[in-house]
Amino acid sequence: MEQDNPSLRSLLRADIDRQRALFNAPPIKSKVKLILGMFAPRFAPVLLYRLAYSMNHKGFRILARFFSLLNYTFFGIEIAVVCKIGPGLFFPHTQGTVIGAVSIGANAVIYQGVTLGAKDLDFTYDEHHRPVVGNNVVVGAGAKVLGGLTLGDNVTVAANSVLLMSVPADVIVAGMPAKIVKKRTM
Q: Which of 55, 91, 119, 181 has the highest CB neighbour count under 10 A?
């Protein structure tokens, strides 16, 4: 059951560990350094999202929207409070990012100016009109992933691409509209 619905604490720990690994930083041994690290500009948006999602999941919708509004106000990132995102989330930069996907897997890297959402106006948050993103996905700056499509695991969406179709695992997509430009061999 822990896999399907990990605790807020375990998600935050995974997010911190991933960021430290990306920067080759030594493990945090002090609680003070851990708390200060949570207010770093690359981690605070993740923290606010995690709090918003957790509060929404527990039924505290007004509090969830408050955390979401803080994220938008201070970091310029809008993340739907119902979007489930796996551990290891990393935002190198956040300004102008809109995340309205159904779900995003573990270890996602999402750059600034990205939109993950519906192609058309969708105020009801219909899951059939929104993307499902796999594990270990990188979405480059300015990329748009629109509609009820699926991105497989280990996909890279190149900067400024507009992806309108589902793509399998282990590919790189680029262009407007985006197409598979390379298949990875593992």
A: 91
